[in-house]
Amino acid sequence: MKNLAELFEHEIKDLYSAEKQLVESLPNMVKAASDKKLQQAFANHLEETKTQFERMKEICSELDINPGNTKCDAMEGLIEECDGMINENADPDVKDAGLIACAQRVEHYEISGYGTAVRFAKELGYSGIAKKLQTTLNEEYDADNKLDKLAQGRLNKEALV
Ligand code: FE
Ligand code: FE
Ligand code: FE
Ligand code: ZN
Hints:
Low-confidence stretches: none
CATH topology: Ferritin
Structural class: mainly alpha
Bound molecules: fe (iii) ion, zinc ion
Helix content: over 70%
Number of strands: 0
Radius of gyration: 17 Å
Shape: elongated
């Protein structure tokens, strides 16, 4: 890697892979959630994630980047932890609290990745691409906040007993 443009390309490929993996794994989170609001939150974010993956495809083609089979190893690991929670033998309320914990780790990883990518895009003068990345970043923040509210509002309290 010789310059920020090459590093940016690396970051874009990583985010492309992260979203791709999430499109495949989020349906399992939807199925595993017991609380209807949590299930809805996961289902909504699955739909958003499909759009985010399309956005990454557009960005790759605009920049002539071939994401190939670059893999985001961190997302693979985070999804493994989600799968572990899904398969855990736990009371439904406790499992819901655990699913939220796993899902928020995923959102925080995405938030840091997109935060960096937006900054790099601006620095490189890709203003249109920076805007697209910012749209996704905002969605990740919203998803994280919704999960925070679900956990604080009710789900963690139910899991206490
Ligand atoms: Fe995402
Ligand atoms: Fe990564
Ligand atoms: Fe997300
Ligand atoms: Zn958060």
